[in-house]
Amino acid sequence: MKNALKDIANAMHAAVPEASFAVRFWDGEVHTIGTAPAFTLSFRDKAAASAVIADGFLGFGESYMTGAIEVDGDMQLLFRLGFAVGYTDHSMSLKSKIRILILHILKQNTLTGARKNIAHHYDVGNEFYRRFLGPTMAYTCAYYDRPDRTLEEAQTAKLELVARKLRLQPGDHIAELGCGWGGFLIHAAQHYGITGVGVTLSKEQVDYATQRIAALGLQDRIRVELKDYRELEGTYDKVASIGMMEHVGIRFVPGCFKKIKALLKPRGIGLVHTIGNDVLRNADPWFDRYIFPGGQVPPLSMLIDGVCDNGMNVVDVENLRLHYELTLFHWIENFRANEDWIRATYDDVFLRMYRLYLEVCASSFRYGDNRLFQVLFTNGLSDLVPLTRSDLYTAPAPVASPEPVPA
């Protein structure tokens, strides 16, 4: 078993020769590569080693959550090495494959299943998310015109970028599918004079957004409803989906675009902002079980097909891959600053689960196959979108000004 782990470590070093790290085994033996290890990967017992060898990242993740595996030092380098040797695509034992298949089938995003899946991730308490997302409560990729922007500045810039891409105008009636805590609707109402509705399946998000909208005096212009996007009715000048498409599941992506088509007025503009891949890949078993049940990252081709197969027209596609890495680094920094509170409020397993999730996600955008696509499209031919992108960048984004968090 030690030899198998040493083989993996040696393969990692061969892929990134400048990397220096160590592996500590359950009996105290240390396998060191290089002269100044940036991290030490420790296996507390043989069971953790067996789990990693048999089940790849699923085994690693479950063992890390319980403390049977520890990483002291640079986790980003560890995951860089893992992506370099394709370890995240490691095959699983037959027993685990059957277990994951059953769980995946049970967690499909039907109308009932979607509510359960969203509640699993989002209804753990608004205070938890505020601790690492900050005052904007934006849980999607931010936009960095400069890498030294604060998280709040970059998130506000993202909201403004989406608003500009949609060419929002006073009086526009908009819909947001998967609106989270209401940040984009509020930004659009405050800066562009729109009216609109957002939908989410998280009761915690609805409660927070409704309180914040009322505190800002915007309740006559925008609202957030506890509703599946498939249940939304009406027609809208603009439709946005910011960070929802990766949750719906590959099976439901075509239907989601069909719904967007039905919601958009003729010549209306839509934007989908989503994590994506270059090609279709299976959902990661650890993420599917513990983080985003029922979710699966769509390939860019599926997003384009979703637009075109429904008689809509692609206007622009942008890949903000490295913006998401920067966003995640800010979230990780905030998360680390609040680890004592998180451990006391939840438990150590929960803490380690989210720490692992954030760390591996950051690495996946730099070294893995995760992308962040913004796909802009119109419902039929439309001249509402200018000839160039220059209007998106002609003025600086509004300076972030945090609102009081409602009690």
Automatic annotation (TrEMBL):
Residues making up the signal peptide according to the UniProt record: none
SUPFAM superfamilies hit by this protein: S-adenosyl-L-methionine-dependent methyltransferases
Active site (UniProt): 361
GO BP annotations listed: lipid biosynthetic process; methylation
Keywords on record: Lipid metabolism, Methyltransferase, S-adenosyl-L-methionine, Transferase
Record-level Gene Ontology MF annotations: methyltransferase activity
InterPro entries: CFA/CMAS, CMAS, DUF7884, SAM-dependent_MTases_sf
Keyword Thylakoid: no
Keyword presence, Nucleotidyltransferase: no
Pfam families from the UniProt entry: CMAS (PF02353), DUF7884 (PF25371)
Domain of life, per lineage: Bacteria
Domain DUF7884 per the UniProt entry, residue ranges: 18-80
Annotated family: Belongs to the CFA/CMAS family.
Protein name: Cyclopropane-fatty-acyl-phospholipid synthase
